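Reminder: ligand-aware prediction takes two inputs, not one.
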Amino acid sequence: MNRTDTQEPAISNTENHGIGLASDTSAPCSKRTPSASEATDYYFCQAADVLGVPTWLRSLLLIPKREVTVRIPVEMDNGSIETFVGYRVQHNNFRGPMKGGLRYHPEVNLDEVRSLASLMTWKTAVVNIPYGGAKGGVCVQPSHLTTKEMERLTRSFVDGIHDIIGPDSDIPAPDMGTTHEVMAWFRNQWEKYHGFNPAVITGKPVEEYGAKGREEATGRGVGILALKLLRRLNIRPQDCRVAIQGFGNVGSHAAKFLSESMFPIVAVSDVSGCYFNPRGLDVAALLRHALANRSLEGFAECDRLPANELLSLECDLLIPAALGGVISENNVSSVRARTIIEAANSPIHPEAHRRLTEGGITILPDILANSGGVTVSYFEWVQNLQHYSWSLDRIRQELDHKLSEAFESVWQESIAKSLDLRTAAYTVGIGRVQRAAELAGFRA
Ligand code: GLU
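Here is what comes back for the chain with glutamic acid:
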């Protein structure tokens, strides 16, 4: 490949992604808050600077392979037709089939899906599973739809994208707002076009070729990595007060694992509020309450604060496990945690990341911290391809093994090159994708 071939994408990338390929890393986003994909590209560029990745290769690694927008007509229960918009961004496939979740949320847009697809490329590379990265989503408020409408929406979405999805090309999975039921409908609709092949999607119900332990995997992975990080930082679990923002699938499983590992969970929050007890919450009671009520609303065995106060509580470990962009230049000065583990994707804007890091706060980045989910998705895919099913014990053991390896490689990289953990995770991930690109023949 010669330079002339790649000059044009480099220029268009600068226009499309705003932050561009020039590596002005001193003031990441001083003019305005970056969009989701600008923030991801910024983190990429910081690590690419460390690795000395040439401009032509940055374009190749930054620009998605394919972006698809589809209209999704859905017959509502009252007989009317509503049309939704859905996306699938296939970011990179140098290391294997593209992999990533499907998000149903009212704020889903192409820029956000593009950013999340790119994160998947670096995430699968950091945890060293043989995939590239992709992401999809539909702009919809799931709570406004009945179960039947959700099913018809999912089937109509599959009608729009089925020909770019497949077990050897692009394998979706759950993300915010999608459940194992949605995965089952997706698979069933895709198989109407292409025939039986449960490996086309992961996060399925266990009785429908799903993996045991997939549901707990992201939260459990956060807990496993918290133990590893705090051991390195010489903080004992019982001395580590934890605050968790978000009590959905990820936050609740992280809380369960950490409280069983002796961490005092001093605060958790959901949209209804922040539930706080400086001596530690009764996590088993919280889990029971959330299961029965599908919300923390009404949990009375502790103090209650407004939901957004969780981020500014004094604690040793803060775990944002909800939406992206929750810590920005506007509220970063109120954060009083010693360490942060990013269970959500992109919870911290680049400028906030810079200030926290300069302030001595250790941040375990999303592409490592929440990689437990896609790792067990990989185990599910392997089992589907082999028509075999692993025990929960084996899945948990293999998850621990994969995450330990990934954590060690990032930790060692950060020490060897004096990098913060985010930049180290990106350099590990980018280095692996770069090597795959070279082996595929992309050499200047
Ligand atoms: N949506 C999850 C993530 O952001 C899981 C993706 C997967 O299992 O493929 O990592």
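Residues 314 and 336 are 5 Å apart (CA to CA). Residues 217-364 form a domain with the Rossmann fold fold (CATH 3.40.50.720). We will return to this case in the review session.
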